[in-house]
Design brief:
14% strand; 5 helices; Flavocytochrome B2, Chain A, domain 1; alpha+beta; elongated; Cytochrome b5; 132 residues; Cyt_B5-like_heme/steroid_sf
Length: 132
Amino acid sequence: MAECEEKKIYRLEEVKKHNNVQSAWIIIHNKVYDLTKFLEEHPGGEEVLLEQAGQDATESFEDVGHSTDAREMQKDYYIGELHPDDQFTQNPRSKYVTLGSDQAQGSGLSNWLIPGLVALGVALIYRFYMSS
């Protein structure tokens, strides 16, 4: 979407109407995407997208763990924002982390570094006490 274009705002009721193979829209992080032309190309099959069509698919999208490439592809299908009165709020107890479409996922290294250091510490303590 060109930066000079005005951002289109959609009401939830409008998005709900686009829930079939002829017109499939979804909402991810309060952004509206028209995935109609992507249905046949989706690696997980069109059925997965059609199950989410016309509604908020943020949790499903995040649960799958889409790649950085998939997140980049979102830009091609972006058509606007969900109206502020209809926006979904992030549940703080949700099992997924909200990432903006322009943010990258966290490093895999940081996801393993802390648990690895804790395991190393436990192993060293165990070995020290076993040799005493």
